[in-house]
Design brief:
single chain, 2 helices, elongated
Length: about 70
């Protein structure tokens, strides 16, 4: 007689383990063997205006943009 509380899950088997390991290995080889996808180049950002001669002034540089992005998060 069958168990009345059968959940439909079968215990893990060695065959299933090796089948999963082989599938993962084949997928890893396929990913490394396939040619790399080349992305289209992104347009270069516009150059920053020249710094003031006497120093000072505000310049929105890359590190300032990064600071604003991390401070707002």
């Amino acid at each position: 007689m069958q168990d009345s509380q059968n959940t439909g899950l079968e215990p893990a088997s060695r065959r299933g383990f090796f089948l999963g390991a082989a599938t993962a290995g084949v997928a890893a080889v396929a990913v490394t063997a396939l040619p790399k996808v080349v992305q289209t180049p992104v347009a270069a950002p516009s150059p920053l205006p020249p710094a003031p001669e006497n120093g000072g002034g505000y310049s929105l540089s890359e590190h300032v943009k990064r600071y604003y992005a991390t401070a707002s998060a």
